[in-house]
C-alpha cells in the first residue's frame, strides 16, 4: 500500500517515544525516495563500536549505520530493475490500523495498531512465505475452525525426489511461492572454506528445476545436523526474490522467476561473527537475526540495519510485570499454613533460578515472529542469568525468552523455567509462545525422567499451561544422550489450529501434528521420515507450513521433498435405524476415543470408551472409518497396515453394574494389505451382520504412479482371498465414499464423481460437482439414481442428482450430515437447517423452473457451532460449540417424521412419549389420521396405561382450536373406552374428558362422583382433589350447590384452597334451614338466586306455592323475567293477567307503547291500552278500541283532532288528512295536510267531494308553487356546487403536474434531496414518515391500534376536505359521486308536482314548469359530461406526469380514484309529462 505523507509534528527521535501496549508496534522502514541499490559509499566495512552509545535495548541506528556489530555489504551497484507487482493480499505491509508518520532523517517512523486476536480481515488473509527450518510464522484467522471431535485425515501426498543432486549434496530448506503454487527448496554442498547453495523450484506435476545458486562462507562453528550451514531460506513474494542466510554470516538474494536460466544469487552483506538464527517478519519488511557474538540485529527488506544491540542484558523490558503479591498465599495470614506456603514458594523460585538447560539443547538461538508482525521472541542460552553454583555441566546456563517489539525495544523477559529447550514458535493468532521442557535431570524440571512437556508462554513471559509428550523411550544411563529422542523444532500452521512438533529419535525423525480442544491436546497425525536408499537413519532436514493453505505441510529429507495435504474429517457411524449407534471416533495418538451418541453424550476429551494400542506404538492412524452396514471400524496406518475392530455397541445405556458396558470392542484382524499402494483412505463393509466376509477398500497412489487407484480386498477367516484394482481417470487428491448401501464412488479433484465397480474393475462417471468437495456424502433416490451432497473448501453446499440437476443450498455452510431422511447443515450465520430429503428431491426436479430456495426449517444455534453427527433413532443432532461443549438438538421436522411413522404403524405409546419428550402438541395423535385414531381408539387406551399420559393427551385435545362439537365427540369416545376398561382406575381421566370440553361439562363430572360416592368414598375424595386442579374451585362449589347436594358442595369446599369455613358453613346452614321453613322449592329458589340462575329461581318460587306469588311478581319485575313467568304460570288465568299487567307497565316505561298496549289489552286494562295506543300513534288500533269501548262523539272529535295534529307534526300528512276527515270532521285542515304531503290529486278529490272548490286557489295553488320553487333552488344549488368543484379539480391537476412536491407535501415539509431518504428505515421507528413514504403502499410497522387510528384520521380528513390538503382531491371526487343521487331525488319531486297539475295547475304554471324542466335537463347533461371527464374510460391511459422541478426523482404512485358513479334516468314518466306539457 502507498506510504502515507510525512508529518512534521512527529517526535524527533523514536527512542524517546513511550512504549506502546500489546496492540501497537513501531516499525522503521527506509524512505520511499531511496532506491533499491546501495551506493558504493555504503558498501564500506564497518567495525568497532558505533558512535551512538549502546544502552540496554534502546540502541538504534537512526541514520542507517550499524552499532556494535561488524556488517559487510558486498552488494554491487546495478541498474534498478522494476519489481514485479505482488498480489494485493500480500503486497501491503500492515494493512489496516491507524498510522502516524514522522520524518526523521532518511527514515520514516510509522505506528500501526494491531488487534491481538481480531485483526483486519485483509491482514489476516495476507500470505506470508515460510522460511526453512519451520520458516516464518504465518497468518491466522480470528476464529479458527474447531477441531475437537474431528480427525486430521490425509487428503493427498506427494513424494518428490531431486535426481540431479551431487554425491554430497543434501536438501536442507524449503519455502513456498504462493503465486506459482510451487515449493522452493535449497540444497547445499558443504566444504571447509565455502558452501555451495542451490535453489530448486518444484511443482507437483513436473520435475524439480534448478533456478539459482550461490556460494557462501562456511562457518567455523560446528553446527548440528542436518543443516550444517543453512540458517534460513525465505521467498519474498513482493520482490519475487529468494533470501538465503548462511551460518557463516552471508546473506544472498536474487530473482528466481526465470526458470530457463540459473540465476546467481548476490551476497548483499555479511556478519563476520556468523549468524545463529534468522527470520523474516510475516510482512517481509523486517529481518530479525542473532549474530554469533550474541548481538541481535534488525534489517529492512533492503538489508539495511535499523537496530543492533546485545541480546543478553540484565534488563527485563519495558512492559515487565511487577508482582506485588496481592492475593497470594504468602502475603496472607494463615498461621503455619501461610508460613509453609511462603517457604514452598521461595524454594520453588530458588530451584527454578538454579535450573539449567536440557542436555539435548543444541545451544543455538531461535527467533519467531507473532502473526501480525508487531513483536518477535528470541530464545537463547543465557550464561549470565545465574552465577555458577556447582561444577556440574548445564547448570550455569539456561534458556531465556525475550520479547521485542518491531523496532527492537525489549518488552518482556520470561520467568525462569528449568530444563527449557531450544524449540520455539509463536502462535500466529498471538496468544501463546510454545517451547518444550525436560524433567528428571540435574538442573531440569522437578519430575520423573519420562516427563517431557510442551510449555506455553504469554507475551509477558509468564507460563500459560502445558501438555505432555507421549514418547516411549528406554533409559540409556551409560551414554551421553540419556533419552532416545529429542524435540528439535515447533511450528504452527496458518490458522493456529495445528502445532507441528519435530521429534528426532534414534531410529528416525518424525513430525507430530497436535490439535487442542477443551484444554486437551490431541495427537492427530505422525509423519515419519522416508528411509534413505543408503540405509542410514531417516532424517528430516526442514519442515514448513503453507502460508495460505492451513492444512498443507512440506518436509524435506536429504534427497526428497514430502508434500502432505490434510483435511478435517469426522468419523461417524452411518448405519440406519434401528441399528444405528451414532458412534463417533476421535483420534488421540495411539487411542481412539469412542462415543456412541445414541446411548451417551460425553463431551471431549471424555469418551464412553477407548480403543488403545499397546506401546511402543504411539503413532495415530492415517485414516479411520466405520462400516455403513455393521458395527465395525477400520484403522489405516502407513505401509497399508490396517486394523479391523468389532465394536459390539450395547443396545441400551447400562443402568446397573450387572449390565454390559457401553461397548465391548474386539480386534477382528490386523495386518498389511499386499500391494505397492501408498494408501491414504480406507473403507470397510461386509455382506451382512452375520457374515465373516469383509471388504476392505483402500485409496492411494502406487509407488511411482500419479493416478488414484482404488484397491478392494476381500478378507475371510483371517486370509486375503481376492484383490481388485480400479484406476481412476484423473491424478491424485481424490476421495472415495459410499453410495447407497455399500456401493463405492470416487470424487476427483475436478469434482467428477465416478462409480467404482470393483468386481468388473470399471469406473463409470456419474455426475460432476461444481467444484471439488472434500466432505461428500450421498443419499439414495432409487436403485440406479442418487443425490450427492458436497461441501467445498469455500463453504458452499452443493447438491447434485445423477439425472443432471444441481443446486447450491448454502454459500456459508460449515458442516453437514445426512440421515433419517433429512439433510442437516450448519451455516456461518449460526443456524442449523433441517431439510427433508423428499422435499429436497422435489426441489431438484423443479429447480430450473423455480430456482429460489424454499423456506426450510432453521433454528438458531450457538455461535460457531458445528455438526458432529445425526442419530436417527433418537431424532437428535449433535452440535459442538467453539468452546468444546456438546449440544443435542432435536429438529422439529425430524421428530415429526418419526412420530408420524409411529402413528401410521399404530404405535401410539412411542409416539406419545416422543411428543411428550420433545414438547410437541399431542393433538398430532388425532390430527394426523383422524379416522384411524377413532377406529383404533381401543388400542390407544390399551397402550397408554399411565393415567397422567392420558390426562396430558386430553388436555391438549381441549386446548386445540378445533370446533367444540368435535372436541366433545373425541372426549366422549375416549371416556367410553375408559369406562369399559376400568372406571375406578381411570376416574381422573374420565373427569378430564368432561372438564376439557368447551364449555366444561362440570355437572356431568360431579354426577359421576355422586354415583361412585356410595361404593368408594375414598376414591371420590381423591377425585375431588384432582378435579379442583382442572377447574376453578368456586365454580365447582357453585355447580355442586346447583345440583342441590350439600354433602358434595361441602366436600369441594373442604378441599378448596380458596374457601373459608367461616363463610361457607353458615351459608350452607342458612340454605338448609330455608327448606325446613318452607317447601323444598323455596330452598332451590335461594340456591338458584345465589347462583344467579334466575329462571330456575323463578321456577322454585312457583313450586313453593301461591303464598309467595307476590314475591314472585317482584322477582319477575326485578330480573325482567316476564316471558319466563308467563311460561311457568301458563294455565292460571288470574296469575297470567297479573303478569301481563306487570309486563305492560314495564314496556310502557321503556316507551314501547304499542307492545305495552297489546299487553294491557290481554290483561283486560282498556284504559291503559288506549293511552298506550295514542302514545304509539297507532291511530287505527286506537279508534277501533275507542269505538268498542263506547266513547262519546265529542270525545271522539277531540281525540281525532289531537291525533291528526300529532301525525302532521311527524310529517305523516296522508294519515293526518284521513284522521282529520274521518274522526275530526275538519275538511280544511285535511286538505292542507294532503297538499303539504304532495298528494295533490287526493287533495283535489277531497275538495270536489266535499264541495269546497274554494280551497283549490287558497290552499292548493300556493302549495304547488312553493314546491316548484323549492325544486328550482335545489337544482340551482347543485349546479353551482358542481361548477365550483370542477374548476378546483382542474387547478389541482395542473398543480400535480407542475409541482408534485407541493401537491403531496402541502405543509411545506420538503426534503432537499429525496434520493437521500432512507426508505429502509427501522421497523421500530416512531418518527413520522417522509414525503417519499407517506403515500406509498408499503405496509406499516405500527400496531393494530395505530393502524386503526390512522385510518380514522384519514376518514375524518376526507370528510372535511379542507382546501390545500392532500385529501382535497379525493373529497371533491366523493362529493361529485353523490350528485347523481341528489339529482334523481329532485327529479322525483318534479314528477310528483307535474302529475299533480295535469288537470288544474298546467294553465297557471306552464311557463314555470317548462323552465324548471329545461334547467333539470341541462343539469343532468352537465353532470354526465363532468363524470365522463373526471372518470376516464379504463382503456384510456393517463398522460405521464413530468418530473418535479426540484429534481427529486421518482414520485409517489397515482392514488386510486373513488368509484365512478352511475347515472340513471327518472323513468318514462317525465318524458310523457313533457310531451303533454308541450
Mean pLDDT: 78
Instruction: Report the C-alpha radius of gyration, rounded.
Output: 51 Å
C-alpha end-to-end distance: 101 Å
Sheet/helix structural class: alpha+beta
How many distinct helices? 35
Largest β-sheet summary: 5 strands, antiparallel
Fraction in beta strands: 25-35%
Number of strands: 60
Helical percentage: 25-40%
Overall outline: elongated
Strand order of the largest sheet: 2-14-12-11-10
Low-confidence stretches: 1-145, 385-395, 1309-1348, 1395-1399, 1434-1455, 1465-1478
Write a compact overview of the structure shown.
It is built from 35 helices and 60 strands. Strand 35 (about 585-590) and strand 36 (about 590-595) form a beta hairpin.
Write up what this structure looks like.
The chain is of the alpha+beta class. It has 35 helices and 60 strands. A five-stranded antiparallel sheet has the order 2-14-12-11-10, with no helix packed on it. It has a five-stranded mixed sheet with strand order 6-7-8-9-13, with no helix packed on it. A hairpin with a 5-residue loop joins strand 50 (775-780) and strand 51. Helix 12 runs antiparallel to helix 13. The two termini are 101 Å apart.
List the helices and strands and how they pair.
Layout: E1 24-30, E2 71-72, H1 88-91, E3 101-104, E4 107-113, H2 121-124, E5 151-161, E6 170-177, E7 182-189, E8 194-203, E9 206-217, E10 230-236, E11 241-246, E12 250-255, E13 263-264, E14 266-271, E15 275-280, E16 286-291, E17 295-300, E18 305-310, H3 336-354, E19 366-369, E20 375-382, E21 398-405, E22 410-413, E23 425-426, E24 433-438, E25 452-457, E26 463-468, E27 485-492, E28 499-505, E29 508-517, E30 520-528, E31 542-545, E32 552-556, E33 560-569, E34 571-572, E35 583-588, E36 591-596, E37 609-612, E38 623-626, E39 632-637, E40 641-646, E41 666-672, E42 677-686, E43 693-702, E44 707-716, E45 719-731, E46 735-738, E47 744-747, E48 752-757, E49 762-768, E50 775-780, E51 786-791, E52 797-801, E53 806-810, E54 813-819, E55 822-827, E56 831-836, H4 837-845, E57 857-860, E58 866-871, E59 876-880, E60 886-889, H5 892-905, H6 908-917, H7 924-927, H8 930-935, H9 937-943, H10 947-959, H11 964-981, H12 987-995, H13 1002-1013, H14 1017-1030, H15 1033-1042, H16 1046-1055, H17 1061-1077, H18 1080-1090, H19 1094-1103, H20 1109-1119, ...
Parallel strand pairs: 9-13
Antiparallel strand pairs: 1-4, 2-14, 3-4, 5-33, 6-7, 7-8, 8-9, 10-11, 11-12, 12-14, 15-16, 16-17, 17-18, 19-20, 20-21, 21-22, 23-24, 24-25, 25-26, 27-28, 28-29, 29-30, 31-32, 32-33, 34-35, 35-36, 36-37, 38-39, 39-40, 40-41, 42-43, 43-44, 44-45, 46-47, 47-48, 48-49, 50-51, 51-52, 52-53, 54-55, ...
Amino acid at each position: 500500500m502507498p506510504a502515507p505523507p510525512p508529518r512534521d509534528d512527529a517526535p524527533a527521535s523514536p527512542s524517546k517515544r513511550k512504549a506502546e501496549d500489546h496492540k501497537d508496534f513501531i516499525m522503521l522502514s527506509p524512505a520511499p525516495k531511496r532506491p533499491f541499490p546501495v551506493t558504493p559509499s555504503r558498501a564500506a566495512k564497518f567495525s568497532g563500536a558505533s558512535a551512538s552509545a549502546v544502552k540496554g535495548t534502546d540502541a538504534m541506528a537512526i541514520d542507517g549505520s550499524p552499532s556494535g556489530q561488524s556488517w559487510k555489504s558486498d552488494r554491487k551497484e546495478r541498474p534498478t530493475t522494476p519489481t514485479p507487482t505482488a498480489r494485493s493480499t500480500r503486497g501491503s505491509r500492515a494493512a489496516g490500523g491507524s498510522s502516524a508518520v514522522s520524518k526523521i532523517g532518511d527514515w520514516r517512523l510509522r505506528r500501526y495498531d494491531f488487534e491481538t486476536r481480531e485483526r483486519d480481515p485483509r491482514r489476516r488473509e495476507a500470505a506470508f512465505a515460510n522460511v526453512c527450518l519451520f520458516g516464518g510464522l504465518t497468518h491466522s484467522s480470528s476464529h479458527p475452525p474447531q477441531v475437537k471431535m474431528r480427525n486430521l485425515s490425509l487428503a493427498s501426498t506427494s513424494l518428490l525426489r531431486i535426481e540431479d543432486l551431487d554425491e554430497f549434496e543434501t536438501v536442507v530448506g524449503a519455502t513456498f511461492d504462493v503465486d506459482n503454487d510451487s515449493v522452493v527448496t535449497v540444497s547445499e554442498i558443504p566444504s571447509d572454506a565455502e558452501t555451495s547453495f542451490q535453489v530448486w523450484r518444484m511443482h507437483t506435476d513436473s520435475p524439480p528445476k534448478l533456478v539459482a545458486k550461490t556460494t557462501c562462507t562456511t562457518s567455523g562453528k560446528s553446527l548440528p545436523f542436518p543443516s550444517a550451514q543453512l540458517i534460513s531460506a525465505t521467498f519474498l513474494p513482493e520482490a519475487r526474490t529468494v533470501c538465503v542466510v548462511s551460518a557463516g554470516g552471508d546473506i544472498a538474494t536474487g530473482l528466481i522467476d526465470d526458470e530457463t536460466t540459473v540465476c546467481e544469487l548476490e551476497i548483499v552483506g555479511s556478519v563476520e561473527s556468523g549468524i545463529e538464527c534468522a527470520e523474516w517478519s510475516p510482512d517481509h519488511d523486517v529481518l530479525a537475526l542473532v549474530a554469533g557474538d550474541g548481538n541481535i540485529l534488525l534489517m529492512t527488506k533492503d538489508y539495511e540495519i535499523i537496530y543492533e544491540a546485545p541480546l543478553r542484558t540484565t534488563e527485563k523490558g519495558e512492559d515487565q510485570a511487577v508482582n506485588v503479591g496481592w492475593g497470594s498465599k504468602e502475603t496472607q495470614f494463615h498461621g503455619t499454613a501461610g508460613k509453609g506456603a511462603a517457604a514452598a514458594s521461595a524454594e520453588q523460585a530458588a530451584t527454578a533460578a538454579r535450573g539449567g538447560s536440557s542436555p539435548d539443547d543444541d545451544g543455538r538461538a531461535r527467533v519467531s515472529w507473532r502473526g501480525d508482525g508487531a513483536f518477535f521472541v528470541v530464545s537463547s542460552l543465557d550464561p549470565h542469568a545465574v552465577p555458577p553454583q556447582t561444577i556440574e555441566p548445564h547448570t550455569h546456563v539456561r534458556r531465556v525468552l525475550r520479547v521485542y517489539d518491531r523496532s527492537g525495544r525489549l518488552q518482556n523477559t520470561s520467568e525462569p523455567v528449568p530444563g527449557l529447550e531450544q524449540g520455539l514458535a509463536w502462535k500466529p493468532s498471538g496468544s501463546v509462545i510454545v517451547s518444550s521442557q525436560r524433567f528428571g535431570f540435574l538442573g531440569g524440571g522437578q519430575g520423573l525422567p519420562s516427563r517431557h512437556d510442551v510449555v506455553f508462554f504469554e507475551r509477558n513471559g509468564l507460563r500459560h499451561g502445558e501438555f505432555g509428550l507421549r514418547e516411549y523411550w528406554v533409559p540409556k544411563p551409560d551414554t551421553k544422550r540419556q533419552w532416545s529422542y529429542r524435540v528439535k523444532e515447533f511450528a504452527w500452521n496458518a490458522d493456529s489450529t495445528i502445532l507441528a512438533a519435530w521429534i528426532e529419535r534414534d531410529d528416525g525423525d518424525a513430525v507430530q501434528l497436535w490439535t487442542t480442544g477443551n484444554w486437551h491436546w490431541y495427537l492427530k497425525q505422525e509423519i515419519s521420515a522416508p528411509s534413505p536408499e543408503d540405509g542410514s537413519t531417516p532424517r528430516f532436514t526442514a519442515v514448513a507450513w503453507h502460508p495460505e493453505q492451513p492444512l498443507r505441510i512440506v518436509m524435506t529429507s536429504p534427497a526428497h521433498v514430502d508434500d502432505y495435504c490434510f483435511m478435517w474429517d469426522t468419523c461417524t457411524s452411518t448405519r440406519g435405524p434401528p441399528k444405528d449407534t451414532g458412534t463417533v471416533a476421535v483420534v488421540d495418538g495411539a487411542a481412539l476415543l469412542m462415543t456412541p451418541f445414541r446411548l451417551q453424550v460425553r463431551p471431549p476429551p471424555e469418551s464412553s470408551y477407548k480403543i488403545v494400542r499397546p506401546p511402543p506404538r504411539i503413532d495415530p492412524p492415517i485414516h479411520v472409518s466405520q462400516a455403513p452396514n455393521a458395527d465395525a471400524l477400520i484403522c489405516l496406518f502407513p505401509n497399508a497396515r490396517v486394523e479391523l475392530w468389532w465394536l459390539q455397541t450395547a443396545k441400551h445405556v447400562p443402568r446397573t453394574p450387572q449390565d454390559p458396558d457401553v461397548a465391548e470392542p474386539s480386534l477382528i484382524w490386523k495386518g498389511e494389505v499386499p500391494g505397492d499402494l501408498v494408501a491414504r483412505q480406507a473403507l470397510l463393509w461386509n455382506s451382512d451382520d452375520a457374515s465373516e466376509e469383509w471388504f476392505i477398500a483402500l485409496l492411494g497412489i502406487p509407488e511411482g504412479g500419479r493416478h488414484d487407484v482404488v484397491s478392494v480386498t476381500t478378507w475371510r477367516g483371517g486370509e486375503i482371498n481376492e484383490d481388485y484394482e480400479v484406476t481412476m481417470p484423473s491424478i491424485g487428491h481424490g476421495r472415495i465414499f459410499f453410495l447407497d448401501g455399500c456401493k463405492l464412488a470416487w470424487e476427483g479433484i475436478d469434482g467428477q464423481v465416478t462409480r467404482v465397480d470393483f468386481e468388473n474393475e470399471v469406473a463409470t462417471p456419474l455426475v460432476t460437482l461444481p467444484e471439488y468437495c472434500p466432505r461428500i456424502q450421498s443419499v439414495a433416490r432409487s436403485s440406479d439414481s442418487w443425490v450427492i451432497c458436497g461441501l467445498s473448501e469455500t463453504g458452499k453446499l452443493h447438491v447434485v442428482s445423477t439425472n443432471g440437476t444441481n443446486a447450491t443450498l448454502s454459500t456459508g455452510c460449515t458442516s453437514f450430515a445426512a440421515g433419517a431422511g433429512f439433510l442437516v447443515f450448519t451455516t456461518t450465520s449460526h443456524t442449523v437447517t433441517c431439510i427433508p430429503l423428499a422435499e429436497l428431491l422435489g426441489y431438484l426436479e423443479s429447480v430450473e423452473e423455480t430456482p429460489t430456495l424454499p423456506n426450510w426449517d432453521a433454528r438458531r444455534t450457538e455461535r460457531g457451532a458445528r455438526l458432529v453427527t445425526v442419530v436417527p433413532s433418537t431424532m437428535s443432532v449433535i452440535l459442538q460449540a467453539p468452546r468444546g461443549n456438546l449440544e443435542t438438538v432435536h429438529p422439529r421436522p425430524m421428530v415429526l417424521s418419526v412420530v408420524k411413522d409411529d402413528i401410521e404403524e399404530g404405535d401410539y405409546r412411542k409416539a406419545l412419549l416422543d411428543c411428550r419428550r420433545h414438547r410437541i402438541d399431542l393433538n398430532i395423535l388425532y390430527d394426523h389420521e383422524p379416522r384411524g385414531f377413532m377406529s383404533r381408539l381401543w388400542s390407544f387406551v390399551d397402550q397408554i396405561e399411565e393415567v397422567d399420559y392420558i390426562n396430558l393427551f386430553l388436555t391438549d385435545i381441549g386446548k386445540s382450536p378445533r370446533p367444540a362439537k368435535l372436541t366433545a365427540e373425541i372426549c366422549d369416545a375416549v371416556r367410553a373406552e375408559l369406562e369399559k376398561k376400568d372406571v375406578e382406575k381411570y376416574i381422573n381421566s374420565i373427569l378430564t374428558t368432561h372438564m376439557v370440553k368447551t364449555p366444561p361439562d362440570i355437572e356431568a363430572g360431579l354426577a359421576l362422583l355422586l354415583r361412585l360416592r356410595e361404593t368408594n368414598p375414598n376414591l371420590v375424595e381423591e377425585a375431588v382433589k384432582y378435579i379442583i386442579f382442572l377447574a376453578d374451585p368456586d365454580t365447582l362449589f357453585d355447580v355442586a350447590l346447583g345440583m342441590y347436594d350439600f354433602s358434595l358442595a361441602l366436600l369441594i369446599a373442604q378441599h378448596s384452597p380458596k374457601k373459608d369455613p367461616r363463610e361457607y358453613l353458615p351459608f350452607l346452614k342458612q340454605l338448609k334451614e330455608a327448606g325446613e321453613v318452607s317447601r323444598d322449592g323455596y330452598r332451590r329458589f335461594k340456591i338458584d338466586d345465589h347462583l344467579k340462575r334466575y329462571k330456575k329461581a323463578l321456577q322454585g318460587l312457583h313450586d313453593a306455592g301461591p303464598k309467595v306469588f307476590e314475591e314472585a311478581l317482584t322477582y319477575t319485575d326485578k330480573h325482567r323475567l316476564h316471558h319466563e313467568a308467563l311460561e311457568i304460570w301458563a294455565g292460571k288465568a288470574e296469575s297470567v293477567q297479573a303478569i301481563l299487567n306487570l309486563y305492560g307497565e314495564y314496556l310502557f316505561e321503556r316507551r314501547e307503547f304499542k307492545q305495552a298496549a297489546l299487553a294491557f289489552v290481554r290483561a283486560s286494562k282498556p284504559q291503559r291500552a288506549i293511552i298506550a295506543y295514542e302514545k304509539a300513534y297507532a291511530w287505527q288500533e286506537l279508534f277501533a278500541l275507542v269505538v268498542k269501548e263506547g266513547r262519546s262523539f265529542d270525545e271522539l272529535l277531540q281525540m281525532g283532532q289531537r291525533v291528526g295534529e300529532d301525525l302532521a307534526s311527524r310529517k305523516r300528512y296522508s294519515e293526518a288528512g284521513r284522521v282529520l276527515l274521518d274522526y275530526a270532521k275538519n275538511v280544511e285542515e285535511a286538505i292542507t295536510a294532503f297538499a303539504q304531503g304532495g298528494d295533490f290529486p287526493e287533495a283535489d278529490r277531497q275538495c270536489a267531494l266535499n264541495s269546497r272548490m274554494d280551497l283549490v286557489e287558497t290552499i292548493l295553488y300556493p302549495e304547488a308553487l312553493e314546491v316548484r320553487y323549492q325544486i328550482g333552488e335545489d337544482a340551482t344549488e347543485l349546479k353551482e356546487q358542481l361548477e365550483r368543484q370542477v374548476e378546483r379539480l382542474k387547478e389541482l391537476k395542473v398543480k400535480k403536474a407542475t409541482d408534485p412536491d407541493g401537491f403531496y407535501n402541502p405543509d411545506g415539509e420538503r426534503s432537499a434531496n429525496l434520493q437521500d431518504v432512507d426508505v429502509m428505515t427501522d421497523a421500530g421507528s416512531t418518527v413520522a414518515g417522509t414525503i417519499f413514504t407517506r403515500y406509498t403502499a408499503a405496509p406499516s410497522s405500527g400496531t393494530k391500534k395505530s393502524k386503526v387510528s390512522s385510518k380514522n384520521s384519514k376518514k375524518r380528513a376526507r370528510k372535511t376536505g379542507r382546501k390545500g390538503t392532500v385529501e382535497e382531491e379525493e373529497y371533491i371526487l366523493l362529493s361529485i359521486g353523490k350528485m347523481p343521487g341528489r339529482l334523481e331525488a329532485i327529479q322525483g319531486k318534479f314528477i310528483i308536482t307535474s302529475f299533480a297539475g295535469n288537470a288544474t295547475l298546467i294553465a297557471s304554471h306552464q311557463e314555470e314548469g317548462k323552465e324548471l324542466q329545461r334547467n333539470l335537463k341541462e343539469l343532468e347533461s352537465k353532470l354526465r359530461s363532468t363524470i365522463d371527464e373526471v372518470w376516464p374510460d379504463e382503456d384510456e391511459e393517463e398522460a405521464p406526469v413530468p418530473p418535479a422541478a426540484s429534481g427529486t426523482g421518482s414520485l409517489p404512485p397515482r392514488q386510486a380514484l373513488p368509484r365512478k358513479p352511475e347515472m340513471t334516468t327518472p323513468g318514462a314518466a317525465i318524458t310523457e309529462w313533457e310531451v303533454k306539457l308541450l
